[in-house]
Amino acid sequence: MSNLDYLNSGKVRNDWSLAEIEAIYNQPFNDLLFAAQLIHRQNFNPNEVQTSTLLSIKTGACPEDCAYCPQSGHYNTGLSKEKLMAVQKVVEKAQQAKKNGATRFCMGAAWRSPRDKDLDVVIEMVRQVKDMGLETCVTLGMLTDEQAGKLAEAGLDYYNHNLDTSPEYYEQIITTRSYDNRLDTLQNVRDAGINVCSGGIIGMGEKVNDRYGLLMQLANMPEHPQSVPINMLVAVPGTPLGEVEKLDEFDFIRMIATARIIMPNSYVRLSAGREDMNEQTQALCYFAGANSIFYGEKLLTTANPEAEADSVLFKRLGIQPEQRHHSKEEVEAEAADMAAQAAEQTTSDKKPLFYDATEVN
């Protein structure tokens, strides 16, 4: 077995080197996609894609200075600032998402970290959305271990906190929060027993070595993130990255395929930037191992293909939305609810054996 065959074997590892990731990323394009597709088939149904919907529950005025983000209070992008949404409004949005076929509902708030009183509101959102049978995910900024614990108690399924880029390029993108701050939050989430959703953005002016470095950080975590969103920069006018040159889409597909190979059991999400991709690029991303998308018209504050367009492309490719796999506890609880409802209905349907002779018509 050659060294590249070993690297392409799909073995779960947490000790990847930069040189190994470089070798995978730079192999001939067809070989890279073939290796990624083989590994994908070993771990997932290749014709199913997990579908999520993302809602901005608190928009704008964020104190962080992320160079790509229109929600940062440091830049003038014309984005309207909105307060934290009411719980009932979020529930209505979740109901629509479920009707459109989403199995996971993600809620994002533009905060450095949540205040306790705001976290209490988000926890109620999580509980009510989860009661609808949807998986839940939130992204709220940095979390303490106590806050992560509260979200876990509420039944939160996933917490999103991206690394964005490599440690070496990170300070070119954000100065108000350190790389270690991000890693600490992810550890708090893991310790609380919540699934980790963490990835990054490419096309921010970084070197290709920074892409290897981002993947190495993700794949060498104590446990691979259960969900790995790979974003293509959406250049928003008014941000420092508003005029960055557009990324070569082959580079993006290579990133998807490499992520699939080195994190074989993770869902790899084809995330921001899909609005600017043609159908052929998206199809190659699915072939390269992407098996999760955000489904709907908007990603927080940037455009995303509409659910109907995704459905049309899925049909052309023979792809089905993945159905949610319920836990044993959820199945038992649902069965108990159905039995109780049936018993109640049977009782109400019973007719009296005798009529009441005193009743006057």
TrEMBL record:
Iron-sulfur found in the keyword field: yes
Binding-site list for [2Fe-2S] cluster: 106, 137, 197, 269
The protein's annotated pathway: Cofactor biosynthesis; biotin biosynthesis; biotin from 7,8-diaminononanoate: step 2/2
InterPro entries per the UniProt record, alphabetical: Aldolase_TIM, BATS_dom, Biotin_synth/BioAB, Biotin_synthase, Elp3/MiaA/NifB-like_rSAM, rSAM, rSAM_sf
Radical SAM core domain location: 47-265
Gene3D superfamilies in the cross-refs: Aldolase class I (3.20.20.70)
Positions contributing to [4Fe-4S] cluster binding: 62, 66, 69
Catalysed conversion reaction: (4R,5S)-dethiobiotin + (sulfur carrier)-SH + 2 reduced [2Fe-2S]-[ferredoxin] + 2 S-adenosyl-L-methionine = (sulfur carrier)-H + biotin + 2 5'-deoxyadenosine + 2 L-methionine + 2 oxidized [2Fe-2S]-[ferredoxin]
Cofactor notes: Binds 1 [2Fe-2S] cluster. The cluster is coordinated with 3 cysteines and 1 arginine.
Self-association and partners: Homodimer.
Classification via PANTHER family: BIOTIN SYNTHASE, BIOTIN SYNTHASE, MITOCHONDRIAL
Its biological purpose: Catalyzes the conversion of dethiobiotin (DTB) to biotin by the insertion of a sulfur atom into dethiobiotin via a radical-based mechanism.
This protein's name: Biotin synthase
Lineage per the UniProt record: Bacteria, Pseudomonadati, Pseudomonadota, Gammaproteobacteria, Kangiellales
Gene: bioB
